[in-house]
Design a protein that fits this description.
Blueprint: H1 6-15, E1 19-20, H2 21-27, H3 33-40, E2 45-47, E3 55-58, E4 69-72, E5 75-78, H4 83-93, H5 100-107, H6 112-120, E6 125-129, E7 132-136, H7 140-162, H8 166-178, H9 184-190, H10 200-210
Antiparallel strand pairs: 1-3, 2-3, 4-5, 6-7
Helix pairs in contact: 9-10
Length: about 220
């Protein structure tokens, strides 16, 4: 048997965008899980923050989008290494804080448990604005600035809601008919270039108004 080394894993990561534990065991000559992880700690990698962390990928900074996310066929990886650190960074970097829904739309996973844990451990703060919890920086000055910006955004959104005409609603619903299961980001991307513009806030208004978040998932909308 050839000598096992982390370099064998590096070469495997270079060959494939995604790998699983079994791939690494084979690359290391039917190695045990313990042996794989002993070598893996010496390799720059990221583990998926969805799909139960089953998938691994090379940690290459050029892969991540402006939010620090790398996605491949519905499998998502964080530049930060795990979901909690990414959520904390996104909350603290945001000029107006983040809502639970905004984070879930962006990350495509549930974040409520992570948010509650981080609030209790004082990694992030929370404040209620217009009936919704906004997650914010722990620094009082930064948090105050975020709240000012959030209130400005709420005022702007009131005008955007007025722009959601029947024609906009029809366009959003047509996208959902053609592409069942699409989320707000998917719909906004498919409507990019539409004239007049249909932006993410417009799509969000339609989803909220008609409770469309669960349409197309698990056979249709929730009946809770």
């Amino acid at each position: 048997m050839s000598v096992r080394s982390p370099q064998q894993l590096v070469e495997l990561f270079d060959l494939k965008p995604l790998i699983v534990l079994e791939d690494m065991q084979r690359a290391l000559g039917s190695a045990s899980r313990a042996t794989v992880f002993r070598h893996l700690v010496k390799v720059r990698y990221r583990r998926s923050y969805n799909r139960n962390g089953r998938y691994y990928t090379k940690h290459d900074l050029t892969r991540y989008d402006r939010h620090g996310i790398f996605s491949y066929k519905g499998i998502h990886f964080s530049r930060d290494g795990n979901l909690a650190r990414m959520v904390s960074r996104l909350v603290c970097e945001s000029s107006s804080g983040q809502t639970q829904r905004e984070l879930q739309d962006l990350l495509q996973v549930r974040v409520q448990a992570s948010l509650v844990t981080m609030v209790h451990s004082k990694q992030i703060a929370r404040s209620k604005v217009s009936g919704h919890f906004i997650y914010l920086h722990v620094d009082p000055e930064i948090r105050a600035a975020q709240l000012v910006k959030r209130r400005e955004r709420i005022e702007e959104r009131r005008f955007e809601i007025e722009e959601v005409t029947d024609a906009v609603i029809i366009e959003v619903l047509l996208i959902l008919i053609r592409h069942p299961g699409s989320n707000t980001g998917d719909v906004a991307r498919r409507l990019k270039g539409h004239s007049p513009p249909i932006r993410m806030p417009h799509v969000r208004v339609v989803f909220d108004r008609y409770n469309l978040d669960d349409v197309g998932k698990k056979g249709g909308p929730s009946r809770h």
